[in-house]
Every structure is written in structure tokens, then in C-alpha cells.
Write a structure and sequence with these properties.
By secondary structure, the protein is α/β, with parallel strands linked by helices. Helix 4 links the parallel strand 3 and strand 4.
Length: 726
């Protein structure tokens, strides 16, 4: 029987804050879930930010409810896999241990390293008594399983269960999946489970997604793979609101999402269904109010970016902003009044204004005509002001109005990104031309609303600004990004630098500081895209007089299918930088061995010792102690080289004697900057990175400028690759 399921996160707050110990809701969900022909649930702990996994069930009540939930899953004949490390096992009851146990190695690398496991095989052996299935894939790679296949099958002779995250799925399957794609060769090895992390491709309204997903799942089945597990978008893992009414939008929205994916998996989805799903959303949730106008404006862009299209539907965090969430609900339509009812005693003016609002009978405005949207928002603001809404609510409504003015920009920009994605995957120059047109439209719309953004960019009360900064960044830089992207598409053969890897998490300041602004400020165009490598190969730009610098950041998966092309390019003079690789590392890719281990620690401050090697990447420093980014937040997790071949040169190392919490076994093998000459070119590996500076609500004033050290690092990269700056 095929596995068909969903993965859900577990944390110490899973029941109490998000699901309110609501057994009735869970029973209804399981019944509905089973009715859609799903048969598997994979629970995984929210452990990336935790080191003590006993915290997940530190109280009796959450553990009691989880055990109850497992029993209900079995009553519904649902397979349950629970990802847990040895540190958590002693706290589980006998009933829980009857559940098939799964083990995710990567999430426990830190714990297991402290117990003395030096490499993957030892960790694998350490799992023997704790699991009957290995899940290896959330932040890792099937390549490791391939290397350890013999031992893997000795320990788990029937364990043929593999998971991959959404981004890796695209790397392995490709934009146009064929049976010779690497993913399908892995599927033939056993019981394949596709695990999609953020599920951008499963937006029911994205035109390209249904055919792509159906083709990929069909290919996996034809290659011998069986089953899938999906993961809801992380920003709305259901349901964040505490209102379990039959009209709650989050409640039904989740079910609708499961339904749409179920159709993809069954290959019943047809492009014409998109209109029906749109109508279904309106029927279920109500499509009156100003939100609908913006919803339609973005919908016309092809609904490629879920964080744009979902902005007015499920990105509000009810936990931290209950009042603004109530106001927000009122914009969606009177039907949502039921969601506000449990709090009406706290916010009577809001509840009264919503209850009194008649349902709109107006026809939907044209996409380009947003005047109706502005008028309706203004009317709503006047109404709530009349009802003496407090200052926070007024600010929220004002910001919402400012956000509405951006809708034309979002529509053009979302369309441009969709076209760019398809262009680099197919090489169709017609798509490139249309993408440039959309970028130019976005740039024009951006100019019109720049003053609005500048006035309000300090932060939105509901965290909406975090979503805006995903694309806009600090205001003066946005136009540079648009202009640079247009040049890159029009003149791709002349782009001197490309960047691949884990590039989509742009809601962190260090990404823009290191990976974007220094390039723009120096007049260097750098193409950022998951699919840039296959297109680079097809376009003929993979040559030293074209592409000079290839940066692979965090995730090595995009590089792996192009080993021959990449190494040939390096040998003829290219420069390859493996930067802060944390997942999908394959030592067999490199001409000389380089084995890694990982650690996390807290530094008093990051100290770096530069050796005496004369090299552009060290910026002219020799035999010097440097303080690296003194304004960092002090947290660093990075690859730590444990051994490397004689061809590697050590340019710089982190001074571990300055670190707190570093495992003793890694003291002699600190994170390093290494270089391997290869033909006329070089391969550099850096485990020294700029620390994360997370954004909360806009950019703090002191972070608005590009860090001077970061500019120096980028200049060293350009010098190393022989890239001329303007």
C-alpha cells in the first residue's frame, strides 16, 4: 500500500498554545484526513532551535495528549511515524513505544556528537535499538544513505524509507521531470516518501504546479517508488488561531489545501480546475471586503508566491496580536465574525462594527483598478475610528492601507519571478523577454509607492513587514535588485557570477548584506536561482571567459548533478566557492577528500587567525589575528573540517580557544577557510561565515548600512575570480 500522508511539527507548545487541547477538533480532522485517502502521519519535533529534546514533553499534559492522539490515529487506521532521538526515549511510555519509531539523524547531530559519534556510520549503528525506519532528508541527503547502503540494510533489512525536502526534490527531479532524473533512480531503491518542506509548488492556484507535481509523482511510481508525505507551509502550520468554529477560515482552509494536493497526487488535477478552486475558496470563506480586491490583483499574477497571495488569508499570528488579528479578520468579510465572537467581550467595538457590516454585493473590480480597494479600506478605517479603536488598531489599519498600495507592484513582481523561474529552467528566450517586461512594470510600480514604503517601513504590527522585506529589503536597494535582474536576464551569457544553494530564506539581513548588496554596489551582476546551473550549462555561459565565480551557499544539492561540467569549468580557470555548507554535502564530488563534521557553539567573539599564505581571499593579511564581525549576535554554527587531503591549503582558521561550548573532539579541527588548486582554477571551502542577524520588524537603524567587513569579503571574492567592478 502506498504511503500518503502529512508531516506535522511537535513542540512543547504544540497542544497548549496552538491546538488548545481540543480533542473534538482533532477527531474531526483525523476523520476528514482519512476521508481524503491519506493513511500516514509523520510527527517531527520542532528541534532546530532546541538542544534539550526532553523539553518537547517536559510536562505530563502534553505527553498525555500526544499519547491520546496516537491512539486516535490507530483507531482511524493511520500509520504514525514519530521522529525522536535517544535522549527523548526514556520519557516515553510503553504505549508510545508500540508506535513505529523513526529517527532523523541531522536534527540530533549536536547531541550525538557530544556522545562521541564521529561519523555517520557510527550514528547509524547507534540508532539500531531505537528505530525500525531511518528518515534521512529534512536537512540532509540521500547520497549518504547510498554510501552506507550495505550497513543500512544490515541494520534495517526492511527499512527502505527515504524523505527529501521540497527544494532538494526540485534539484533531483528537474523542472521537466524525466525517468532518467536522479530522483527516480533513488525511487527504484525502495519505499520512497516525498517530503516537501515549504510546498510553494502546491499552491492550488499556481498554474505551473499541478502538472509538474503530477508528473513527478507519476515518475516516482513508474521507477518503483511508493508514497509521499507533504508538509504544510511553515508560516501557517494549522491552525494558529484558537477559534474552532465551523466557519473559521483557517480550519477549512487547511482542509481545502489537503484536498487540492490529494487531487495532484491522484493525477485528477486539470488546469481548468484552478477557477473552480478559486470559486470554492470564495464560497467557503466569503469573498467580500477589501481583502478580496487585493486577492484578485495578486491572483492575476499567476499566484506563484504563496506569501504574497496568502498575505490576507493566513499569515497573521493570532498568538501575539489578538486585537489586530480581530481587525484583520473583519476585512475578510462578515462571515468571519464567528472567529471574533469568542473575544467580543475584549474588543466590543470591533465585534459590533463587523456584525453591523452588510455583506458586499459589489462586483469585483478590475485588477488594475484599485481605487475601490482604497475607498473601502478608508471607509473601514473611518468606521473603526468612530468606534474608538485604540492606537494600535488605527496603526494597523493605516499600515494595511499602505500595503494595499503595493498590490500593483506585487502582481508585476510575482509574475516576473514566475517567468524567471521558468526561463532558467527551460532556456526559452520568449519567457526571458516577458520576464523583463514584468520586471520593468514592477520597477515602475515600485517607484510610485516608494514614498509609502519609506514612510512605513519601520515595521508592521502584525509582522506583515517581515513578508514585505522578503522582496523589498532596505528601500534604496530594491530598485538596484530590479535593474540588476533585468540585465541578468537580457545578458545572461555575460553574467560573471552565479549563486545557488539555500537562497530562498531572504528574510535575514546577513543574506542581503553578503549575497546581494556588495555585488550591486560594485556593479557586479550575480544571478541567484535554484535552477541557474542547468541553464548555465545549456546557455554556454559555463566557461572561464563567461562565468568567473560560482558560489554554493549552505546547500550543495544543486551542484551534485553537474560534477563533470563544474570540475571541467574549474580546471579551465573558474572559481568555485563552497560557502557554509550545512546540508547535502558529498565528499565524493571534490577532486581531493574533505570530510566534515558539524558543531554549534557560542563565541565570546569570533576570532580568526590568518596564516602566512598569500592569497586574494585573505585580503592581503598574513599571520594576523582578526576579530570577525564584532557586531555579530555571537551565535555560529558552521561546518568543521575534520580531515582533508594534502592538496588543500589552509588560509585561515577560527580560534577555538576563544569559544565556549565547543566539543572537545573538535578542538583540534576548527572551522577553516581552505583552498584547493585545480588546473587553472581553484575550489575554496569556507566554514567561516557571517552570523545570522534575524529580522523582527523592519531593519534596525544600526543594521541599515552594509557591514564594512562584509564589503571587504566580497571585494576579496571579486579579486580572487578576476571580476572587474564598476
Amino acid at each position: 500500500m502506498d504511503m500518503r500522508g502529512i508531516s506535522l511539527t511537535i513542540s512543547d507548545t504544540m497542544f497548549e498554545k496552538y491546538w488548545d487541547y481540543d480533542k473534538g477538533w482533532w477527531e474531526e480532522f483525523l476523520t476528514y484526513f482519512k476521508g481524503l485517502d491519506y493513511n500516514t502521519i509523520l510527527f517531527w519535533p520542532l528541534c532546530e532551535e532546541r538542544t534539550n529534546y526532553n523539553d518537547v514533553f517536559g510536562q505530563d499534559r502534553p505527553r498525555e495528549y500526544f499519547e491520546w492522539l496516537l491512539e486516535k490515529c490507530h483507531e482511524h487506521d493511520l500509520k504514525v511515524f514519530y521522529l525522536v532521538g535517544p535522549s527523548l526515549l526514556p520519557r516515553m511510555s510503553k504505549r508510545m513505544l508500540q508506535v513505529p519509531m523513526s529517527y532523523m539523524l541531522h536534527c540530533y547531530d549536536t547531541d550525538e556528537s557530544r556522545k562521541g559519534y564521529r561519523d555517520f556510520l557510527e550514528k547509524l549503528k547507534g540508532c539500531q535499538e531505537n528505530a525500525d525506519v531511518i528518515v534521512r532528508g529534512y536537512l540532509t541527503t540521500p547520497y549518504v544513505i547510498e554510501q552506507a547502503k550495505e550497513i543500512f540494510h544490515q541494520i534495517f533489512p526492511d527499512g527502505r524509507f527515504w524523505a527529501t525536502r521540497k527544494y532538494s526534490f526540485e534539484h533531483f527531479a528537474g523542472v521537466e521531470p524525466t525517468l532518467d532524473a536522479p530522483l527516480y533512480s533513488k525511487a527504484a531503491d525502495g519505499n520512497l516518501v516525498l517530503w516537501f518542506q515549504t510546498c510553494a509548488d502546491f499552491d492550488p492556484f499556481r498554474a505551473v504546479a499541478p502538472a509538474h507535481v503530477s508528473a513527478c509523482l507519476k515518475g516516482c511510481r513508474e521507477a518503483g517508488g511508493r508514497g509521499f508525505i507533504m508538509h504544510p507551509p511553515h508560516w501557517w502550520t494549522f491552525p494558529k488561531t484558537s477559534h474552532r468554529t465551523d466557519k473559521n477560515p483557517g480550519y477549512k482552509r487547511d482542509f481545502l489545501w489537503y484536498q487540492s494536493f490529494s487531487k495532484y497526487a491522484k493525477e485528477e488535477y486539470k488546469p481548468a480546475d484552478a477557477a473552480r478552486w478559486s470559486a470554492e475558496l470564495g464560497r467557503r470563506f466569503g469573498r467580500s471586503g477589501p481583502a478580496d480586491d487585493l486577492y484578485q490583483a495578486v491572483d492575476a499574477a499567476g499566484r506563484f508566491l504563496p506569501t504574497v497571495s496568502d498575505l490576507f488569508w493566513y499569515s497573521v499570528d493570532f498568538q501575539y496580536h489578538p486585537q489586530t488579528a480581530s481587525v484583520f479578520d473583519s476585512f475578510v468579510g462578515p462571515e468571519i465574525y464567528s472567529a471574533i465572537r469568542p473575544r467580543h467581550h475584549q474588543y466590543p467595538s470591533i465585534a459590533q462594527s463587523v456584525a453591523a457590516a452588510p455583506e458586499s454585493k459589489e462586483a469585483a473590480p478590475q485588477v488594475k483598478d484599485l481605487s475601490n480597494l482604497h475607498r473601502r479600506i478608508s471607509d473601514a478605517i473611518a468606521q473603526v475610528n468612530k468606534d474608538a479603536l485604540n492606537h494600535e488598531g488605527e496603526a494597523f489599519l493605516s499600515e494595511l492601507q499602505s500595503l494595499a498600495k503595493l498590490s500593483g507592484f506585487w502582481a508585476s513582481y510575482a509574475r516576473a519571478i514566475e517567468l524567471t523561474y521558468r526561463f532558467v529552467g527551460t532556456g526559452d528566450n520568449h519567457l526571458a523577454k516577458k520576464a523583463v517586461e514584468s520586471y520593468n512594470e514592477a520597477a515602475a510600480a515600485y517607484t510610485d509607492v516608494a514614498s509609502t514604503i519609506e514612510a512605513d517601513y519601520k515595521g508592521f504590527t502584525t509582522g506583515i513587514w517581515d513578508i514585505i522585506t522578503t522582496w523589498s529589503g532596505v528601500i534604496p536597494e530594491m530598485r538596484k535588485s530590479l535593474d540588476s535582474t533585468c540585465r541578468m536576464i537580457e545578458e545572461f551569457r555575460h553574467i560573471p557570477a552565479c549563486m545557488v544553494g539555500d537562497l530562498l530564506d531572504r528574510n535575514i539581513l546577513w543574506y542581503r548584506q553578503l549575497m546581494e548588496w556588495p555585488f550591486h554596489n560594485n556593479g557586479v551582476d550575480c544571478f541567484h536561482c535554484h535552477q541557474v546551473l542547468p541553464y548555465t550549462v545549456k546557455s554556454g555561459n559555463f566557461r572561464p571567459d563567461g562565468l568567473r565565480l560560482l558560489i554554493v551557499q549552505k546547500d550543495m544539492a544543486p551542484l551534485l548533478p553537474f560534477k563533470e561540467e563544474v570540475l571541467s569549468w574549474v580546471k579551465s580557470g573558474g572559481r568555485l566557492l563552497l560557502y557554509d555548507i550545512e546540508r547535502n554535502y558529498d565528499p565524493g564530488f571534490l577532486p581531493e577528500p574533505l570530510q566534515l563534521d558539524y558543531f554549534s557553539n557560542v563565541h565570546i567573539h569570533d576570532g580568526i587567525y590568518v596564516n602566512g599564505e598569500d592569497h586574494p581571499l585573505t585580503g592581503g593579511f598574513k599571520e594576523r589575528n582578526l576579530t570577525f564581525i564584532p557586531d555579530s549576535n555571537g551565535i555560529r554554527m558552521g561546518p568543521c573540517s575534520t580531515c582533508y587531503g594534502p592538496g588543500w591549503k589552509v588560509l585561515a582558521i577560527v580560534q577555538e580557544e576563544m569559544a565556549l561550548g565547543t566539543p572537545a573532539l573538535l578542538k583540534d579541527n576548527p572551522a577553516a577557510l581552505l583552498v584547493l588548486p585545480w588546473g587553472k582554477g581553484e575550489i575554496a571551502f569556507s566554514g567561516i561565515r557571517v552570523p545570522h542577524i534575524q529580522l523582527k520588524a523592519g531593519y534596525p537603524p544600526e543594521r541599515a548600512e552594509i557591514n564594512s567587513t562584509v564589503l571587504k569579503i566580497a571585494a576579496n571574492w571579486f579579486s580572487w575570480a578576476g571580476i572587474k567592478t564598476r
